[in-house]
Amino acid sequence: MGANEHGVCIGNEAVWGKDDVCAGEALLGMDLVRLGLERADTAEKALSVIIDLLEKYGQGGNCMESQMTFTYHNSFLIADRKEAWVLETSGKYWAAEKVEGGVRNISNQFSITTKIDREHPELKEYAKSNGWWDGEKEFDFAATYSYVDTARMTKTRSRYCEGYKLLNRHKGSITSEIMMEILRDKESGINMEGGFMTTGSMVSVLPQQPNLPCIHFFTGTPDPARSVFKPFIFVPDIPQLLKTSSPTFGHDDPVKKQPRFQSKPDRRHELYKKHESAAVVMETNQGKGKELLKEIKELEKQKISQMESVLQNGCLDVNQVVNLFSQCVEEELKIYS
What we know:
The chain is an alpha+beta fold. Helix content is 35%, strand content 13%. Helix 7 (270-284) packs across helix 8. The longest helix is centred in the C-terminal third of the chain and has 28 residues, at 286-313. It comes from Willisornis vidua (Xingu scale-backed antbird).
């Protein structure tokens, strides 16, 4: 997931369907997120960047830094100040839905059904050639390209369904704080635990008024229930965020060598390591853990209040904003120390 200086935001989820996933090296979903943000200044342009790259280079390859192969197709939630799109892919084939209103989420399943606003030119023909669609009944992308029962899609206990329910509960009154609480929800599976723990979380506020800044909140740490959503605003001359940047290994990085993934370097940044130690305290020392959690929640609340003030008053001190995120990281590190 990520955002750029134009207020374009992209989230990415793994999906699986009837089509096999390419195990050969190609573009990962994470590559497509990065390239979409690098090259587009609107949500629809980001959509076009991704589908063009998909056509030219394909998607596939191992998504884990491990000798164990883990591959998937990709879905994307793409938004800017004015509009939002859902893009779902199966190999080189894809369907896109423009979000017209209300709430919309993606998770680990296809979710575009009969409302398709853009599509791969051979999407339906490919489905017919595989016997997935008879060409007669209304074309339903999720039902055709996967095994999802679209009639029950919002009534099951799936992660997608639970996310849909949580968003609908607050439809029309979703604030950044409510969105953070939804991302922290463990019962729904939104906040994942175990081998596929939620490794980072992001909430963005994209005002429709162009004079107001887009505000992005990033944790930079796993498990949002025990993390601080720290504010970030794109302004010129932001210094490198060293304490939340993973170390680099240049040509010695094992992912750049053949065969891949023969060793696994420590990619944790400074905040990640300190947060990891704090998480152990939260689990093993109830009193101290409670105090730590209270302090980081107070820090987050303070930062949210500051950002609300920026949006209400339309007043932005660029000199202060330059260090907005890094200053919050320092305050969080101080709590952990």
